[in-house]
Amino acid sequence: MTRKTDESEDEMLSTDQAESPLINESNEGSYGEGVVMKKGPWTSAEDSILVDYVKKHGEGNWNAVQKHSGLFRCGKSCRLRWANHLRPNLKKGSFTAEEERLIIELHAKMGNKWAQMAAHLPGRTDNEIKNYWNTRIKRRQRAGLPLYPPEVCLQALQESQHDQNTGGVNGEDRGHHDLLQTNSFEIPDVMFDSLTTNQGILPYVPELPDISASNMLLKGVGSSPYCTLPPILTRQKRFRESTDLFPGSGGSFGNGFHSFEQFRDDTRHKVARSFRFSSPLDSDPTAKNSLSFGVIQGSHSLSNGNSSASEPTYGALKLELPSLQYPETDLGSWGTSLPRPLLESVDAFIQSPPPGGTFETDCSSPCNSGLLDALLHEAKTLRSAKNHSSDKSSNSSSATPGDVADSSTLNICETELEDCGDPISPYGHSATSIFSECTPISASGSSLDEKPPAETFTGVVKSEPVDPAWTLDMEIESTTRFNYTRPDALLSADWLQQGSGYIKDQSIMTDAIATLLGDDLASDYKYIASGTSNSSQGWGLNSCGWNNMPAVCQMSDLP
DNA sequence: AATTTCAGCAACCGCGATGAA
DNA sequence: TTTCATCGCGGTTGCTGAAAT
């Protein structure tokens, strides 16, 4: 599909331009010294003027083009037109497989450094590459495929580990870390809850890299190469639409299920609560992970589906990097470093309560939060809530209001869910049936990459054509090899399967969330959740499941 | 056949960096 | 040192044709 060429376009316009000095009245743009600058598509006449000018005067001094050539285009526009279309040695046509492969590799290294990437692709422009990449992101998300082929991830991981071992992080290698950062280990709130029941059997808490939960919350869908769901905006829209499934927007669903508003609020609390942790293990705001919570706007990762890998994200400047905030340290240590014993961590948490009242209701903890902290605190909160469920109100004096409120909310939510007994959704799908119906991931090591959700979702998502640069076999092989270097392997393979309580909690929560999501999203979510509980590929739940959670809990979108 | 949705591309806009006055 | 102009980059928007409904 190609856009109509400028040439053919020009043929229609050229007659008008016989009189008009290249100005299309409908496209008049900025005003400079009283001159109306044209905007919009370039005509061949304009092109020829620009080419002639550059031949005479060379590139540069683009603002002089208008003065000397009579071209009613701003310098910026001239430069862009020249760089992207008129300069010699430009390649036309779609990218070759080799070029695509190179782009993927370069993006893994550089992030959204389109100009730098273009330097490695002779004849290609940064704009071309950028457009290609954005299109690729969309395609991959639609198909539920990883943005980066696991080969690239594995390579980045290995190089990152090598960097860690050698102790150096040079400029370019930051990109690898950023790639790893984009492999955010996104864990839905379900996971936090489920940890409670697994705490007793959890031998270790792996030394998780710090994951900015707020970032996960804000980042939306697609930042993780392994999390490839439809764009969050679409999700949000669909979610808003899905609320229409419930007449009266706040009434009961029926079957005694609590109201949508109630559940929405519960979910809001739960998700928000999960990310309000100040970490005693990382209480220094100037520590490595200096990403602060509370910066709600500004992440542009939503749009391009992948965080910029240009530089580590510090402070609240950019929230584009999804999660892993310790690029210099732990990234390469997945599965290799000795995990921190859970109890030790818990003790550390309990002995060192979060400073300063801790749980900011606006998610703007002055300290940094990591997944480990979140998990620990979630476990603590849940344990505490259960131990004192009969005396919730009395706790308010000894805990922060947010904590208590959240715990109470949690208990309410849990109680209501557990009161349902058998986790049967108002739509009549038990969790068991969900798992049995949607079990796309076998226990034999298949992955989301192998069997993308596109094949499992109910015909909504089109299949993604095989990436010419990366074959399915490559992804299968590399994904399989990659399994045990991925953090989800630590989180899911062993202890998750031991914890029947986890399964129960998860299925309850899954079903509830599926209900909340509505029919179309429910299938997605159920699939994702089932994938985790049924296999060691916890990644599916971690990433996609989480990414459904923001869809549920995009607070700003809730009425 | 008409309409809607989607995908791809070109161009614009805002911002930061750089250098000259 | 400050101010201003220019350049370049990255993100975003809008247009168009194709595909789907």
From TrEMBL:
One GO biological process term: regulation of pollen tube growth
Span of domain Myb-like: 37-86, 87-137
Compartments where found: Nucleus
GO molecular function: DNA binding; DNA-binding transcription factor activity
Origin superkingdom: Eukaryota
Domain HTH myb-type span(s) in chain numbering: 38-86, 87-141
Matches recorded under SMART domains: SANT (SM00717)
GO cellular component entries: nucleus; pollen tube
Transmembrane residue ranges: none
Biased composition (Polar residues): 14-29
InterPro entries: Homeodomain-like_sf, Myb_dom, SANT/Myb
Sequence segments annotated as region (Disordered): 1-34, 382-407
Keywords: Activator, DNA-binding, Nucleus, Repeat, Transcription, Transcription regulation
Protein name: Transcription factor GAMYB-like
Native species: Fagus sylvatica (Beechnut)
